[in-house]
């Protein structure tokens, strides 16, 4: 079963807006365009502080003593944290171990006499990084509708950094190893080369990218 990062109900004030108009509601909150996720919102943070400042229930220490003394479930350490995002019509995921940040979309500066998979260079916090067209690398079809909340994902392995635009960012999920299935044979060859497997999330199939093979493909085809 796939576990999600949901807010604790005990944190909620009288009006838990994140369950109505936030990421766990209908997503109509105008602040989502700036903060991406309710976890980054001052309202959610303030609710968390109120929870931490509140006195503990009488049975709190006893309950957590029992929980911590219980043996760990087998396979719990096999869970992997991934960031789920949409690219065109496809939902994909990238291990958070290579994730640097998700930032607002910005037009890359084109590199003279270069094109194809290389979109150009972008300025991220004062540093210039190569931006790649991940949709072209994976052979992903464009979406029928325009992106409403485009973002840029910055990923790093060692000293190598790549930036790519995505149409939508969902959130971080913790995926057990047994939930990851082999990629179907119908997957496009380009995508299959850098996809580790597929898992289900919120009723949709999500392709888990292999960051090692992804970075290698970018090096070979872009530079």
Q: What distinguishing features does this structure have?
A:
223 residues; alpha+beta; OB fold (Dihydrolipoamide Acetyltransferase, E2P); 5-stranded mixed sheet; globular
Your description of this structure?
The chain is an alpha+beta fold. It folds into 2 domains: 3-69, no CATH class; 78-222, OB fold (Dihydrolipoamide Acetyltransferase, E2P) (Beta Barrel), CATH 2.40.50.180. 23% of the residues lie in helices and 31% in strands. The protein has helices at residues 17-20, 32-35, 42-53, 60-69, 134-138, 189-193, 211-222, and strands at 3-4, 80-87, 90-95, 99-104, 118-124, 127-132, 151-157, 160-166, 168-175, 195-201, 204-209. The strands form 2 sheets. It has a 6-stranded mixed β-sheet. The radius of gyration is 20 Å and the shape is globular. 24% of the residues are buried.
Helix tally?
Answer: 7
Tell me the β content: 25-35%
SSE order in H/E notation?
EHHHHEEEEEHEEEHEEH
Oligomer: single chain
State the CATH superfamily name of the largest domain: CheA-289, Domain 4
Shape assignment? globular
Structural class: alpha+beta
Q: Which architecture of the largest domain would the CATH scheme give at its second level?
A: Beta Barrel
Write down the CATH topology of the largest domain.
OB fold (Dihydrolipoamide Acetyltransferase, E2P)
Spatial extent as radius of gyration: 20 Å
Average residue-wise pLDDT = 80
Major beta sheet, specifics? Answer: 6 strands, mixed
Unreliable runs: 1-13
Distance between the termini: 40 Å
Tally the beta strands.
Answer: 11
């Amino acid at each position: 079963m796939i576990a999600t990062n949901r807010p604790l109900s005990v944190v909620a004030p009288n009006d838990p807006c994140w369950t109505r108009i936030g990421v766990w509601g209908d997503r109509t909150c105008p602040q989502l365009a700036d903060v991406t996720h309710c976890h980054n919102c001052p309202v959610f943070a303030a609710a968390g502080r109120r929870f931490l400042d509140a006195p503990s229930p009488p049975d709190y220490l006893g309950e957590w003593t029992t929980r911590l003394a219980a043996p760990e479930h087998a396979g719990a350490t096999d869970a992997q944290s991934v960031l789920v995002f949409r690219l065109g019509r496809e939902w994909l995921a990238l291990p958070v171990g290579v994730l640097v940040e998700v930032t607002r979309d910005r037009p890359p500066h084109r590199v003279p006499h270069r094109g194809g998979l290389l979109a150009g260079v972008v300025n991220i916090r004062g540093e210039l990084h190569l931006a790649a067209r991940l949709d072209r690398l994976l052979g992903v079809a464009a979406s029928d509708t325009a992106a409403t909340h485009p973002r840029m994902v910055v990923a790093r392995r060692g000293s190598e950094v790549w930036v790519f635009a995505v149409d939508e960012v969902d959130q971080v999920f913790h995926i057990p190893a047994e939930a990851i299935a082999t990629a179907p044979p119908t997957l496009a060859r380009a995508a299959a080369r850098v996809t580790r497997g597929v898992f289900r999330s919120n009723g949709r199939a999500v392709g888990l990218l292999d960051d090692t093979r992804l970075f290698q493909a970018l090096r070979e085809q872009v530079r």
